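Let's do one together. I've listed all components of the complex below, 633 residues spread over two lines.
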Amino acid sequence: MKNSLADRSSGGIICAALITIFFFSGPLHSQEDLVSLSVKKIAPPSSLLATDHKYDNGNSISLSWVPSIDDALMNNPIVAYKLYRSSNDTEPNLIAELPPGSSYFLDNGVSTDNSYSYSVSASTNAYEVLSNRTESITPQSEWINYNKKYLFLMVMIISGAIMYFIVSAKRGKELFVRKIAGLEAIDEAVGRATEMGRPIMYIPGIQDMDDVQTIASLTILGRITRTIAEYDSKIFMPVARSLVMTAARETIKASYQAASRPDSYSDDMVNYITDEQFGYVAHVNGLMVREKPATVFLLGAFFAESLILAETGNSIGAIQIAGTARPAQLPFFIAACDFTLIGEELFAASAYLSGEPMQLGSLKGQDVGKAIAMFFVLLGVLAATVSAAWDIELFNNLLDNLNELFS
Amino acid sequence: MSLILARKEKRSSMDIGMFFAALLTLGIFSFLYKDNPVYKVCEAIFVGVSAGFWAITYFFDNIHKKFWLGVFPQEGDSPDYWLWGGAILGFLMLLRISNKIGWIARWPLSFIVGATAGLYMMLYFVSNALNQVADTMMPIVAYASDNSVLWLDTFGNFIVVLGVVTGLIYFFFSKEHKGLFGTGAQVGTWFLMITFGASFGYTVMSRMSLLIGRLDFLFGDWLGLF
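Okay, and this is what the predicted structure of the assembly comes out as:
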C-alpha cells in the first residue's frame, strides 16, 4: 500500500515538474507563429494603379487593382477591400470600404492642390493585408468636363428655345404672357402714393449683387422708378450693401433719364445703412413709421427680417408688394402683404413689366424648359412605376438612362 | 442649494457691459409700443456700431488678408497675381467720386452682375431643375421586399409627383390658366399654400426660440431670476 502510494506521489511529482518546465521554459513559438500555424494568411490585392481621371475638373483619381487570389475561393475569407489615401505624404486615411470582388474605385474627394498616394487592403474578419503603396499622383483638370455632357446638351436645348423665341418676338410675333396679379398692381400702388402725396419705399433684400434675386430686384426697380419718375412721385431706398447702393443709384438715374426727368433724380434716394442684418431692420422699421410711405416694395432675397419688415409696413397702412425666391420667407409675405410674387414670378417680373421682345422671348423659352422638365418627370415616373411593378427590361433601361441623364 | 446659489451668482451679472446690453434690448423692445426717443437712440447705436464693425472686418478680411498677403506673401509662398484683377476692379469702383470719369465705375459693376449671372445660371439649373427632376422620378406604387404594396409610401409618392407637376403648371407664364390647364394650376396653388402654411408654423416656432433667448438673457443672465 505504502509502495503504491509512493509510486503515485513520485509520478505526480514528475508530472508537476514537467508542467512547470513546460510553462517556465517559454513558448515554443512566437504569437505570430501560432497565428500563422492556425490561420492561413490571405494574399493581398496586387497591381494597384492610381491614374488621373480624364476630362474632369481635377477632382477625381481612378483606382484599379487585381483582387486577392483568395477572393475567388469557395469559402471566401475576404469580407471587404479597404482603400487608404495619403494626402501629401501624411498618415493614410480610410476612404472607402468595398465588397469582395471589387477591383475599381473612383476617388472624388481630391483636388489639384495636393498629391495623393493609395494602398488597398483585403480584409477578413480577423485581420487585413495591405497592397504596396502607389506613387504620388496629382490630379489634373481638363478644359472639357465629359461628366457634364448631358448638362451641356440640356442647356443648349433650352438656350436654343430662348433664342428662337427672342428672334420670333423681334420679327413681330405676338408672345402671350398671363397676368401676374402682383405686377398688375404696381401702377396702382405708385398712383396711390402720388395721390396721397406720400413717398414710396423700395427694399431690395439684404443680399449683395452676387445674388440673382438682388439682380432681378434691381431690374424691376428700373421699371418701377420709370413710372415713379413719370408720376413725379418720390422714392427712398435704404440698402444693406454698398454695391447694391451703387447699382441702385445707376438704375434709378437711368430710369429718370429715360422718363425725361434727369433733374428730379438725387443720390439721396438710395442710402446705405449697415451690413448687419438686424441693425438694418431696426433702421428700416424706424424709417417706415417716421416717413409713412404709401407703398412699400419688398423685392429680393430676405431672411429672418421678412416678417418684421412686412408687419411694420402693414401697421402703417402701406400697400405692400413683396416677392422673393426664398421658400421659407414667402409665407410671411403672403400673410402680411397685399401682393406677393412667388419664386419665379420675381424673375419673370422684369420681362412682364417691360414687354420687350427680348425679355418676353426669354420668358417663353424658359417655359419650354419647364415643359421639357415636366415631360421627363412623367416619363421617369412611368419608367420607375413599370420597372418596380413588372421588372420589364425596356423600362429598367429607360430608368437607368434617365438617372444617368439627370445625375 | 449652494449649487443653485452659485449658478445664480454666475449668471446674474451687473457689470456695465451687460447692463448696457440689457438697456439696449429693452430700448429695441420699446418699439412694440411705438416709435420713441429711446428706440431712436438704440437704433442709431446699433446702426453706427455695426456699420463700423463691418467696415473694419471687410478691410482686414479682404484688403489685408486676401489681397495684401496674397500679392505680397510671406517667404516661401508664391504671390497670386490674379488678385490684382480684383484690386483694379475695386479701384475703378472708387472712380465714381469723380464727376468727369465716374462713368468708369459702371465697368466693375457690369463685371460683377454678368459674372454672377453666368456662374449662378449653372448652379441653379443643376440644383433647382435637374436634381428636382431626378428626385421626382419615383414609382407611384411603392412595394415592400415581399412585393406587398406600401400604401402610405404610395400615397406619399403620388402627392410628390402631383405637387411637382401641378406646381410646374402654375409657373407657366406663356399660357392662360384656363380649362384643364387652369385646374392643374389651381391644384398647384393649393400645394404651394399648404407648403407655405407648414413652413410658416415651423419658422414661427424657430423665431420663438430667438425671443426666448432674449428673455433668458434679461431674466437669467442680467437679473439672475432663473
